[in-house]
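Blinded run. Sample ID left blank on purpose so nobody reads anything into the name before looking at the predicted structure. Input follows.
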Amino acid sequence: MHGALERGRRVYLRHVDEGDREEWIALKRASRELHEAWEPRAPAGESWYGARAFGRIAATTDTPSNQRHLICRKRDEAILGMVNLSQIFRGPFDNAVMGYWIGSEHTGRGYATEGVRLCLRRAFTTLGLHRVEANVMPENEASLGVVRRAGFREEGFSPRYLQINGVWADHTRWAITREDWRGR
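Blinded prediction complete.
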């Protein structure tokens, strides 16, 4: 478990490194059909599924405003997906926005939920954040299950919140604070 930042029962989190390029790209490409319905459209001439996307992820894996974590299976160190904290704001807000995905061949096994829980532990302990939010399309049942199981509470509804595949899509807003997390 090289570079493990948080360890769980079946998975661990670590930052992205250059040696992950081929495995990450293969997992993203194999999962494209599942993910395209839930992801923003890539900028013109770009893709979320290739070497340039991996380069952007790797370059921002550990910065003051981004923490990108691979979700890796402990038994064989396979990359299963990612859980990221972005838009990290410090000071009186101490907040981040969480995003996550799991490879299509690994869905329905609880890996995303375990990875999200580990990321919350890191967010509230190591990183010292006070609040983490997640925004989920109301029809994304799998993702809604993850935030519910991880202890997020629904805070509201944002019409036309984010452009997904060229359409402004509604999202539900979810959040959890350090106090909520400690009380679980």
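Unblinding after everyone has recorded impressions. The first strand starts at residue 6 and ends at 7.
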